[in-house]
Design brief:
Strand order of the largest sheet of chain A: 4-3-2-5-6-7
Oligomer: homodimer
Low-confidence stretches of chain A: 1-15
Number of helices of chain A: 6
Structural class of chain A: alpha/beta
Mean pLDDT of chain A: 91
Order of helices and strands of chain A: EHEHEEEHEEEHHHEE
Helix content of chain A: 25-40%
Chain lengths: 233, 233
């Protein structure tokens, strides 16, 4: 989920300013160790899934790693998206790409990266239920206590809410955050880096920022003039 | 693909002893940089897919990373497996988990980790063709020149065949290789590590080996006696 799709205060009881909140960048090694630990937790529970389902897109990497340690070959995916429903205070999670596999009476393990509100796991569980799946368990690397759904398995608990940036989503997340810190006034790269640090506790590499600004310009969300950048209204 | 499923000499023109061949372990950082480079190659080609399809299981991680740099949300997967056909000299690639998405006239980007014989990409392309997909391109991190199919996009070319171990498949690959180096005679951990190095150019961490041996014992493929290990016939 990109930060532009952030489910903000309405979704949870957290009082949070959407213009400034703490972020944490997870390294590849940390994500690997979390997924490896998650696999151990699942293994020691005795649950042996017939099928592993990655929730797209966040669950792709942890699900692949968990399958490695479970020596599990049968991996597939569903895509769950969050839609803004005009009448609702918060986006609604719904299955965008369904399953093409018969799950009736199968033991299913659903894997995502993180719980935030819990809406994604709830939508996945409801969907698997309508398909007649057998015993269905959920697993995430990191479980935020802000989530209304507690997954069956997790490697880490996060009590103080923060936005977690996984390495496979770092570019897109950074595009979202940089878009937020740009304003109608032109700003230098140093200014932008300082705002990312101040508002989102993010320390960003200059090369990464260059790639992000290129994308924002390509998308006609930003413009450059004499090495300074501003948002296009 | 685990090394136990290795497509050996019959599949390509490589003369190779299945009991000993060079392996290379790719780190998370290397896999990330390869996927990032792959995204740049795709982007600079001007090809803008409507849908990205990861080939399971090897394509899950590179496809997720490529989607990050392409800022592409629509990611799904198919699973392709290699089946041993009694009458054939080599396994046949076939779709195990199909697509649940309408791809008619869609521009599709298929992503896998590596080409080896090219059978996987050929099966994927044939399958997408039967579904009436529009322009369909293939992309891998590493293209081996042993492959009969040349992907449209790749980040790296491998001319001297070797088995590449990706970080998301390291445990399973190591289980396969350790199973191969075990014999009917009991061997110490040091002996096993030495054989892995000699036969497969693999330098393996002791903790990883411990986890691998545990799995082989659980699977009743190996047994332990006084800190020594042997294959169960």
């Amino acid at each position: 989920m990109a930060p532009t799709e952030l489910i903000l205060p309405g979704a949870t009881s957290i009082i949070m300013n959407p213009e400034s909140f703490p972020c944490q960048l997870i390294s590849w090694d940390e994500a690997y160790q979390l997924s490896r630990k998650l696999a151990r937790v699942i293994k020691s529970s005795g649950f042996r899934p017939d099928l592993v389902i990655a929730i797209g897109r966040g669950g792709y990497v942890p699900a692949r790693i968990v399958c490695d340690f479970l020596l599990h070959s049968l991996l597939t995916s569903i895509k769950i998206e969050h839609w803004d429903i005009a009448a609702c205070k918060r986006p609604e999670a719904a299955v965008r790409f369904p399953l093409a596999v018969d799950v009736r009476d199968q033991k299913v393990l659903i894997i995502d990266d993180v719980t935030d509100t819990g809406d994604t796991l709830r939508a996945a569980l409801g969907y698997l239920n309508t398909l007649g799946a057998g015993e269905t368990k959920t697993a995430v690397m990191q479980h935020k206590t802000s989530s209304a759904v507690v997954p069956d398995f997790y490697a880490d608990v996060i009590k103080d809410w923060k936005w977690i940036i996984y390495p496979w989503a770092a570019h897109e997340d950074l595009v979202g955050f940089t878009d937020k810190v740009l304003s109608a006034e032109y700003a230098t790269r140093d200014h932008i880096l300082a705002r990312l640090k101040e508002q989102y506790t993010l320390i960003v590499d200059e090369n990464c920022l260059a790639e992000v600004l290129d994308d924002l310009i390509d998308m006609k969300k930003a413009e450059e003039f004499h090495d300074k950048f501003r948002k296009i209204r």
